[in-house]
Design a protein that fits this description.
With 214 residues, the chain is mainly alpha-helical.
């Protein structure tokens, strides 16, 4: 989440460089360049409604309690969409390529951002229950820190590497993060048992479920 948030805020500094300095757009048109991400966010929200309905139906029909990992399928899709989007954007922002190609490339980023954000937040709440407030606070601190840090070096990075390779850096970071949702989806229960607070939260959650079932 922290890398994802940092990348979003990096875009706030990178888009003026890419579209104003290299394409010669004015401020109004540069602002419109964010429409690609906006469209992706809307698509992600729409998809999340259907995914939540699917989760609710699964919860109603399942005899066993659904673990927090049942919240992660959205992340599995989102974590794939994000690096694809970032590589697509990075290598189509050259002024010789029509701008619509790079704007279209930013759509999967907005889509993946929503999917990863929502599923991660839900996973943390379900996994830590009684400690959810503290976990979400720590998560907010981490992502806000990178969100504040990334724009600070964006201009220097783009000046040193050029727009293509500088835009590829967050794509590489996103690619390195791809395995994590899959690891937590498959081994999340085992990982949580090794965490003191997650294990305590699991005991409370199971006790509550058994009480309701009983």
């Amino acid at each position: 989440m922290a890398v994802l948030y940092g990348t979003l805020y990096l875009f706030f500094a990178a888009f003026p460089i890419v579209f104003r300095e290299h394409r010669g757009w004015d401020e109004t048109h540069t602002g419109l360049a964010f429409l690609g991400i906006g469209v992706g966010v809307i698509l992600g929200i729409i998809y999340s409604f259907f995914d939540h309905a699917k989760y609710a139906k699964l919860q109603e029909t399942s005899d066993d309690e659904l673990g927090p990992e049942a919240r992660l399928p959205q992340s599995l899709i989102g974590c794939i969409a994000i690096p694809i989007s970032l590589f697509w954007f990075a290598w189509t922002i050259t002024p010789s390529i029509h701008f619509i190609v790079s704007l279209a490339g930013s759509i999967p980023f907005g889509f993946g951002f929503v999917l990863v954000y929502i599923s991660t937040q839900n996973y943390l709440v379900d996994a830590y229950t009684i400690y959810a407030a503290s976990v979400l606070a720590a998560n907010t601190l981490m992502r806000s820190t990178l969100g504040a840090a990334f724009p600070l070096f964006t201009y220097h990075m783009y000046d040193a590497l050029g727009i293509n390779w500088a835009s590829t850096v967050p794509a590489f970071l996103a690619t390195l993060c791809v395995p994590f949702p899959f690891l937590f989806w498959k081994y999340g229960a085992r990982i949580r048992r090794r965490c003191k607070y997650a294990a305590q939260a699991e005991e409370v959650r199971c006790a509550a479920f058994n009480k309701v079932e009983g």
